[in-house]
Amino acid sequence: MADRPGSGGPDEGTPEYRWLYGGSDPGDVGPDEDATRVVPRQPRPDETRVMPVQPRDSSGAAPGSPTSRPTPPPVAPPPGPPGTPYRSKGGGWRPKFRVRYILVLVLLWIVYLVFVPFYAWHKVDKVPWEPAGKRPADQPGTTYLMVGSDSRAGLSPAERKALGTGNATGHRTDTIILMHTGSGPNLLMSIPRDSLVDIPGYGNTKINAAFAYGGAKLLVRTIEGATGIRIDDYVEIGLGGLVSVVDAVGGIEICPTENMVDPLANLDIKKGCQQADGATALGFARSRHTSGLGDIDRAKHQREVISAVGKKVVSPWTVLNPIRYWQLLTSVPGFFAFGEGTSTVRAGLWASAMTHVSGSDGLTCGVPISDLAVHWDPTRSKQMFKAIIEDDTASIGKSLCNPTGLVNQ
């Protein structure tokens, strides 16, 4: 094959040249001048076009197929009130609460419940009460000495008149109660203030004189010496303290067994269960001139009031009502005093024990006595004290624990 001069390709006039560059070969049957022309491309459908999807019913079959099922038309939800964000499963419309808001409120409430007791505790007076010298050894369980002081400190003249407390001076006690908690039922035992016992340094006389002579220390020493029971904690309540606590919990229920009219206690109530405010509860707890039992009956009323207060304190409404909770806790510093060394935890345990001293939760009784001159029964009283010392309150029966402390009462 001859190449085109200078180009390295076929020369003009050669068949190869004519074939390559559009010419015709004379030896060909006919001219083929369009041998190299571009053949028009046949139009085709768009290769990238998305094919329509055949609709299928809930069974997955195409419409019209033997297995297809008709698709029900969508049902629009009934219209709700304006502004309701979602429809509840029950068919009603409820607002949508954010969980974090509820958690914040719960956290703030817990902080409030913890803050108020600590705030009140730092304002409470502390009383030196532990006597020097030899004392009973540690005993199982916990025994609290609760003293109701007749001090009028903190009461105005108008309040003294309204409560019927008079203007007596000095610092005596109308109420002496031991509360024991441990493995058995909680025990609330009154010691009548006229009980005749030996007071160290003062001879045999009424037990409340120990408080007048030497305050809490001498009273604790006297009780420990007479009973053999070790006192673990001390709580003192002023006259106004009971009024404040009862009013803070919204009143209590008392159930006098007879009509009670006592001008010295500013008391005039009918027999039967009834609601009592703080002033009435105080009069009920202080009165000793409405029956022949005198101080014995008064001690019974005092235990009844303490038990009723405990029931109200432990009620859920006391904790859920922020106003009542605040009033109850902040009433403590004005009229309550605790023994030196008492921690907030110990005070909390005392308050908790106070709520379990009535009904099936505990025992309430007077110290066993032989007569209304308030001589302790030499046999029964020792049996009672032994049960407390050994933390065996479950063994205490009605022969030892009854409202008056007398035999067969």
In short:
The chain is built from twelve helices and 17 strands. With 409 residues, it is α+β, with helices and mostly antiparallel strands.
What does this structure look like?
The protein is 33% helix and 16% strand. Strands 5-16-11-6-7-8-17 form a seven-stranded mixed β-sheet, sandwiched between helices. It has a two-stranded antiparallel sheet with strand order 1-2. The longest helix is centred in the first third of the chain and has 23 residues. The radius of gyration is 48 Å and the shape is elongated.
The profile of the biggest β sheet is:
7 strands, mixed
Gyration radius, in Å: 48 Å
Order of secondary-structure elements: EEHEEHEEHEEEEHEHEEEEHHHHHEHEH
- Based on CA inertia axes, which overall geometry fits? elongated
* Count of DSSP H/I helices: 12
Low-pLDDT segments, ≥5 res: none
How would you summarize the topology of this molecule?
Elements (H helix, E strand, L loop, with lengths): L2 E2 L4 E2 L4 H6 L65 E2 L5 E2 L4 H23 L3 E3 L14 E8 L7 H7 L9 E9 L4 E5 L5 E4 L3 E4 L1 H20 L5 E5 L1 H10 L3 E3 L5 E3 L4 E3 L4 E3 L1 H9 L8 H19 L2 H5 L1 H9 L1 H4 E4 L4 H11 L7 E5 L13 H10 L20
Parallel strand pairs: 5-16, 6-11, 8-17
Antiparallel strand pairs: 1-2, 3-4, 6-7, 7-8, 9-10, 11-16, 12-15, 13-14
Helix pairs in contact: 2-9, 5-6, 5-9, 6-7
